[in-house]
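re the bet — no i am not wrong, look at it urself. input seq straight from the record:
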Amino acid sequence: MLVEFVPAAQPEEDVVKERRAKEQEKLAVNQLKIKEAKLPVMVIFEGWNAAGKGSVLGRVIRTIDPRFFQVATMDAPPTEEEKRKPFLYRYIVEIPEAGKFKFFDTCWMREVTDGVLTGSAKEGDYKSRIRDINTIERQLTDNGYLVVKFFFHITQKEQKKRLEALEKNKDTKWRANRDDFWENDHYRECLGVYDTYLEDTSRQAAPWYIIDAEDRRWAELQVLTYLNQAIEIALQNHRYNSPILQNRFRLEPIPYLGEIPLDQTITEEDYKKEKKELQTELGELHNRLYRKKVPVIIAYEGWDAAGKGGNIKRITEALDPRGYIVHPIASPEPHEKARFYLWRFWNRLPKTGHIAIFDRTWYGRVMVERLEGFCSENDWMRAYNEINEFEKMLTDWGAVLIKFWVQIDKDTQLARFNERQNTPEKQWKITDEDWRNREKWDLYEDAVNEMLQKTNTEFAPWHILESCDKKYARVKALKIVTESIRKAL
């Protein structure tokens, strides 16, 4: 892309000025349109150091209402805290809400290419990060985002001239640092790395636009023109469904819910003995997890009144409270609903060495959101593949991911509902929504069966907890958690 880049003929200065004014007016109008259409727009500025990204960005945002855009500057290396999260975490938490712009002054490109140029990236990091970047950009565009990516290109000679000018002025000297001059000295090497990255991450839904940045006013006009074109096309496409992609991961066989026997029980004596032994082991494993910096994610789904809360309690009893957090997942808050549905789960990922337990999860999209009409058919049909991709990123990061479906039969649920209804101190546990959901048992069972069949991957398998006997289910969960962590360690 860069190696073969031939700049377009630059118009005369007065023509550039006139066209810039028209594109600025158009962007102001387009901002109102994206607000009305609830289209989130993510604009990424990358390029050579001293290529003028910051000055052009400053001019572009003058045109639009400051209430509806933010700028994220991501050029600093990740903090120690951020290094303990997945590579994409610090970028994904910054994505915009529906109807707003987010301008990124560098994004995930710089971290990847710096890793290659400095040799700090581990073997295989580049390929896995490129795969994750392409995956997340496609997920964002499939879920209604517009992702516009600009690379500001200048020659080695022009870069050197700008860096020397910055260095000579005492007020701008701080803007030309050692890394900038290193890039200029190693221009050909950097050009090859940048070119490969752009080729590897330019996709139809989120292509790269190469900006001839030798002249700043001309660069601004190019950015405004491409941005307006991209917004107008996105607004036309906004009402169309995204394609349903084939699953690319190997799925493991798993029985349907109706095939699972639910007569398993455990005696009180065996329950107390096994629970104590397993909790002791889990506490010791937690210490090793922290020392070896291994993150653990435990995801719970299941029927209402199946015993998820009691099950979680028996696991957390064994853990150091400083090293875990339980996330009870309810309906998304307005700021969560205005973003990509996986965003709120990216925000809740644990640090390395810590445990995150989810009481209900991202699988809500293919269950309650599907059946209650909170998302479109296209949304939930795409979600199986998106969830598998999300979980693959987590396990590639090194997380131990354990998924439980807590299973009971319809009669057991009714008995537990009635007990809650008739016991004053338990009445808070039962709601009208629980009774309404029960009326849709068969529909939910069909949805759960489809979910299990389509997301039971080799890297993130489901574990069924037969919970008509809650104590049996608790011991089984403790066994699976300790075994999974022991295996990972």
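see?? The first helix runs from residue 13 to 37. told u. also Residues 257-488 form a domain with the Rossmann fold fold (CATH 3.40.50.300). so pay up
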